[in-house]
UniProtKB/TrEMBL annotation:
It comes from Siminovitchia terrae. One of its GO terms (molecular function) is kinase activity. PANTHER family: HISTIDINE KINASE 1, TWO-COMPONENT HISTIDINE KINASE. SUPFAM superfamilies: ATPase domain of HSP90 chaperone/DNA topoisomerase II/histidine kinase, Galactose-binding domain-like, Homodimeric domain of signal transducing histidine kinase. Keywords: ATP-binding, Cell projection, Cilium, Coiled coil, Flagellum, Kinase, Membrane, Nucleotide-binding, Phosphoprotein, Signal, Transferase, Transmembrane, Transmembrane helix, Two-component regulatory system. Its EC number is 2.7.13.3. Residues 411-456 form a coiled coil. This is histidine kinase. SMART domains: HATPase_c (SM00387), HisKA (SM00388). Residues 463-681 form the Histidine kinase domain. The lineage of its organism: Bacteria, Bacillati, Bacillota, Bacilli, Bacillales.
Amino acid sequence: MFVMKIKQTILFCAITFLLAACSAKEERDDTQQGLYIMNHFSKIDTENLNGDWEFYWHELLSPDDFKRGDQPSPHLMKVPNPWSSYELDGERLPQQGYATYRLQMEFPQSEVGTAKALYIPEVSSAYKLWIDGEPKAVNGKVGKSTGLMNPQNIPRTIQFQVYDQKIELVMQVSNFYQWKAGIVDSILIGEPEVIAQYREKKLLFRSMIVMCLVVMGLYHVALFGLRRSELPLIFFGLVCLFVSIRAVRLDGILAFYTLPFLSWDWGKKLEYLGASLGILFFVLYTYTQFPKDMSWKIRNIIVATLASYGLFVILTPAIVFTNTMKLLQLLIVVILIYLIYVDMRALIKKRESSLLNAIANLLFFLAIMNDVLFYNHLIKTTELASVGLFFFLFTQSIIISRHYSKSFKHTEKLSRDLAKLNASLEQQVHERTIELRQMNRDLQTANQKLNEAHQSRSKWIRNIYHEIATPLTTIRAYTKGILDGVINSDRKFIQLVHEQSLYLSRMLNDLHDMTEIENREIAFNRKKVNVREYLRKIYDKYKIDIEKQGILFLYEESISEDDDLFVLIDKHRIEQVIVNFLKNAQKFIEHDGVIKLAVTKDESQQLVIKVKDNGAGINENEINLVFERFFRSRRHDDVENGSGLGLAIAKEIIDYHGGTIGATSKEGEGSCFYFKLPIVSTVSKTHGK
């Protein structure tokens, strides 16, 4: 039965990869003898300008040269292909050099007078393009030597007008900076709208991948910050971050938009570092999962090799380290084969999560093999590393969720044991108190206080247990259902488990803050602050996010424009209080509601900062309880309502500042949360500061 499940899972994933590979558009060589004849121009799809192009080695020719007939005899070469694969006079061309490509395109008579567009991917390493004699695009600077050229790899969309049936395309290309040289990817032609959609879809797809990787990476790094003993978290997070760096560099447009300050050389370095260091931390992550099945000596050799390669990339120019791409590809393939061997050993020994790891690594290996062959122009499929990586990340999220589910179950058991221990301690304290009551009145008082402290602690623990138990039950139920096959592993169930875990994370952060505040372990950095400038910055900071929800966010000052008021506060902690008020208002307000941030002075010349809303309001029986720990309104008692500690933390912060905090509300009309702070000085603008 176990073997059958493995076969079924592998078969399903293999079919998924096969469908992804088959979805790639077939690339045909439609260009013959330097002429591309378009008999039937597609209005809904793009066409590849693949095939025989005229090629002039060590010549930088312009359209005027072809008009005068000054050009030498052309060589017909296959495009796309790096020119280092071309042979002239029985010898292969070097990687470094310059050349001119020329293609003539013949359109049907019906297309004359229409607009068309080209999509030009990365051309290594700089080019200049003319269409029908007009200069249309420049990428970098073309030159005949290293000092005369500047490399740049940004995919471009170029629109042109078809004035005649025959259109001439001339492209000068030079490369002195990397191992790829010339036109190495297919140039596409199509309607302007179709080309624009193609570019946007490609950019959107790559952006989604990068965003997901960055979010997952930062999330796991942050988790490691809270749980330093969990090394898999930091290694998994670093894998995501380094792979995201390489994913950005794989699309020149995305890299241009997100990292415009990077030079071409450092962009290439990040691309190679993303691959090598991503695999390095992937190896370390696998070792933390199966330390008994991976040789620590081999692990150290792999880590040392990849770290040395990363240092080599940093210290050498692109023309040197890019020539090691095939060596890096071979190294990665060998490492992945070894990791699959480790997973198989773990699977045979029935280690926890070994099945999912084996399947994920196997498919990721197949995707990498596909990409190695694809980028070396040995097969014509499509890029599959992204699909393999996402499948890998999905399996790891299941593994991590299951691990934390077990951890929470263990925590739940410890909570029950602690509750029993507390009950036993309370009974002992009670018996000792009865025995000693008549002997010493002072000791009786002390024992009574100790008993009250235990009662308070028991209440605190029960509240924590109650808050943790509900999301834990949900997480355990859904993950168990998914593992048993009762529930399909749809995104909505994974999303639900993820939201419950986020809620637990938020509550634990609040508990951490509350404990530190109570124990005075937080250092408040209080400074003299101009109230007007401070509040306006906060208003501007959160205005866009609040109004994205369809809520009108207003700011109101009821203090004299001629006076600047100063208070002594920790800016970060007071902002935390205001943001807590704003988030509470957002939760209980309708789509077209209004939130107002206001500042004024009261009769005792104290500063009053208010957050008003016209939302659901709070019942008058509950208004005096909102600042108590774990209090949540019965009308909105759900996970999105928070842990019930935010306002309690806000009260502790305001108390530390020597201020007061409060709230007023009328059910159905809205609420007003406010706090007061002492004003330390007032400066009149009319007399100067």
